[in-house]
Amino acid sequence: MKNLKSYKGITPTLGKGVYIEESAVLYGEITLGDDVSIWPLVAARGDVNTISIGARSNIQDGSVLHVTRRSPSNPNGYPLIIGEDVTVGHKAMLHGCQLGNRILVGMGCVVMDGVVVEDDVIIGAGSVVPPNKRLEAGHLYVGNPAKLARPLKESELTFLKVSSDNYVKLKNEYLGEL
Ligand SMILES: CC(C)(COP(=O)(O)OP(=O)(O)OC[C@H]1O[C@@H](n2cnc3c(N)ncnc32)[C@H](O)[C@@H]1OP(=O)(O)O)[C@@H](O)C(=O)NCCC(=O)NCCS
C-alpha cells in the first residue's frame, strides 16, 4: 500500500481485514489490530513515539493522530493508544492520549497529551479534553473544557459496540469493492 510510509525504517503493521482508504497516510511505528478501518484523509504519524489501534476500531474522515517524543522529564513521552471497538468521529484530533475500549469520540473533538479515557465513554462532538485529564468509565463528557455531563444510558452503552460493529460491516463492503 502506497499510503503506508516508513520512518527510520519502520512501517505500520496491520492485523487481518484492515481497511485503509487510499487518501489516508500513516507513517512509522503504528500497529493496527484486526478489522480496524481508516477512512479518507486521516493523517497518522507514529514518528517520535508509537501509535496502536485495537481491533474493530474506526478512525473517521479527516482525523489527525499524533504523539509526543520521549524526553528526560517524560521518559515515555506520550504514545497514542486506542483500545478495541472505539469509534473516532470525523475530524477528531487525538494527540498522545490513551483510550480504553468501546468509546465514541465525537466529531471534531480534541483530546490532548496524557489524557486517559476509561472504557465505555462518549465524548460529545466538538469537545476539548485538556492534558492529563481522566474520563471515568460509563459517562458522557461534553464541552470545552470537557466536563462530566451524566452517566451513559443503557441504550448508549449498547450503542458503543453497535457503532464499531457497523463500521466493521461498512469497511467489509468497501474491501469488497477493491
Ligand atoms: C453527546 C451526545 C451524544 C449528546 O446527546 P444528547 O442525548 O442530546 O445529550 P443530552 O441531551 O443528555 O445532553 C446533556 C447536555 O450536554 C449538552 N450537549 C450535548 N452534546 C453536546 C456537545 N457535543 N457539546 C456541548 N454540549 C453538548 C446538551 O445540550 C445538554 O446540556 P444541558 O444539560 O445544559 O441542556 C451528542 O450531542 C453528540 O455529540 N454525539 C456525537 C455524535 C458523533 O460525533 N458521532 C461520530 C460520527 S458517526
TrEMBL record:
Coiled-coil spans in chain: none
One Pfam family recorded for the sequence: Hexapep
InterPro entries associated with the record: Hexapep, LbH_gamma_CA-like, Transf_Hexapept/Carb_Anhydrase, Trimer_LpxA-like_sf
Gene3D superfamilies referenced in this protein's UniProt entry, alphabetically: Hexapeptide repeat proteins (2.160.10.10)
Name the record gives this protein: Gamma carbonic anhydrase family protein
